[in-house]
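Give me structure tokens for this 201-residue protein.
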Amino acid sequence: MPHPVVFRPRGGVILAVLAIALCLAILISIVVTDGVAGLLAWSWPVIAVGWLAWLLYVRPSVTLTDGFVEIRNPLRTHRVPWGDILDVESRYALSITTTDRRVIRAWAAPAPGARQALGTRRADVARAPGDGETRRPSDAEGTHSGDATALVIRALEQHRRTGGASLPGGTVSTWAVLPLAVTAVLLIAAVVSLSQAIAHG
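Here you go.
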């Protein structure tokens, strides 16, 4: 593939943008009514909500490159070389099993809920990669798990057809230190702010 392919559900991004816009409107309202002092004292729960919207719905993604697939979850990132992939499925989410039997699931590509799964038709999974007898509603086109899994399976098949390098054991998982630290600080600040608000009646 000439360029990295990035999968990120559009619906989640839209939801996050709306939540962040609402948080900004609330912050502006606090400044107008209580000034900068009020903003410093009472804004932290609002900021925490906006941050969590970004962390949970914008940051997560699945990126495909020539050498690896990268699964970025809210607080961890997994880089899996194509040669280290043993299996790909979509049962609970896009899930990659590595050659050492680790299972890595993508936050950005969850399987559909029970209601959506019950409404899945045979035609919805007809073009999904794999054996028709083993396809699930989570493989259906138009679902986060189905679309992301199809991308990964097709890229993996292409890698194997072209004799791509095999690098078993090369998976690297890292903690997102900065997002983790920011999350912890904002949650603590939000709790303190709410506690002060309760104490002041």
